[in-house]
Amino acid sequence: MKFITVKTYDELSFKGASMIAAQVIQKPNCVLGLATGSSPVGIYQNLVKWNREGILDFSLVKSVNLDEYIGLDGSHPQSYRYFMQDNLFDHINILPENTHVPSGCAEDVAKEGSEYDNLIESLGGTDIQLLGIGLDGHIGFNEPADHFVGPTHLVDLHPSTIEANARFFNSADEVPKQAVTMGMYSIMRARKILIIANGEKKKDILLRACYGPITPEVPASILQLHPDVTVIFSEE
Ligand code: F6R
After folding, report:
1. Distance (Å, whole) CA 222 – CA 103
2. pLDDT mean over 196-205
3. Alpha helices for the chain (secondary structure H)
4. Please, are residues 7 and 36 in contact by the beta-carbon 8 Å criterion?
5. How far is the C-alpha of 225 from the C-alpha of 218, rounded, in Å?
6. How far is CA 225 from CA 193, 208, 210, in A?
7. Which residues face 139 on adjacent strands?
């Protein structure tokens, strides 16, 4: 693992966006694994800026997102599809048909999950996977459990995740209690992983994930087994 500590969120966002930009420049038809939440917003702002300035071309890029809330369709302002359109896809020259977010409204989530894994497989896997980390150590929405789950699957959100994400809704009651998330198989199969964490409150869990025991109780600890992980932590 490469561990980069920076002072500010702006530095984190600039360095993180630079890593993704390098991937797009080196392989214009690459597959980007993308995340939502507050941490990647600054990265996406840089990518939008560099696309507008003509530095970055997304016309051949494909993307796969990590997760989606169950019950929210893409028109819901708190859905992760909406987030991606609003923060990135609507502002860059990526083709809509090349952007993929798991559906939160599938009748059969297990079937949707295996189709999503097949899709990632058919794209040749992810070149770089961007991850945030939850306060409970989750990546995607792989919550602490007694085993790691491989396929894209349905998950019950941990109470601390519901509480943490209530800031995006009117109240914690409105936060969906379940999500569909990419599992550890597709995450770990990414050729490169970039994990970002912003602020003191993430420090303990990040250190446990990077240097503590590898355990499904701290889902991000599985990343210790991946050969190419970069961690960017901002102290701000
Ligand atoms: C989002 C996701 C989550 C977040 C994590 C951190 O697609 O999969 O794992 O990355 O909950 O969220 P923030 O960045 O809001 O602290």
Report:
1. 25
2. 97
3. 9-26, 41-52, 80-87, 109-122, 159-165, 184-189, 203-211
4. no
5. 13
6. 11, 14, 10
7. 142
Query: Which residue CA neighbors atom 11 of ligand 1 most closely?
Result: 134
Instruction: Provide the percentage of residues in the chain whose pLDDT is more than 90.
Output: 98
User: Is 204 known to be catalytic?
Assistant: no
Residue 130 sits at φ, ψ, to 5 deg, of -90, 135
The confidence band for 1, taking pLDDT boundaries of 50, 70 and 90, is very high
37 in ligand 1 pocket by Cβ < 6 Å?
yes
Give the pair of three-digit tokens for residue 123. 């794209």
| CA 24 – CA 58 distance, rounded (Å) | 7
Q: How far is Cα 229 from Cα 236, in angstroms, rounded to an integer?
A: 22
Residue from 117, 143, 153, 158 carrying the catalytic annotation: 143
pLDDT tens-place string over residues 81-102: 999 999 999 999 999 999 999 9
Let me know: does 5 contact 198? Beta carbons within 8 Å: no
Does 36 contact ligand 1 (Cβ within 6 A)? yes
Model pLDDT, residue 236:
81
Tell me if residue 217 is catalytic.
no
Task: Decide: 57 and 51 in contact? Cβ < 8 Å.
Answer: yes
Q: Which one, of 68, 217, 63, 70, lies nearest residue 138 by Cα? A: 217
- Between β-strands 99-100 and 178-181, what pairing exists: parallel, antiparallel or unpaired? unpaired
102 touches ligand 1 (CB under 6 Å): no
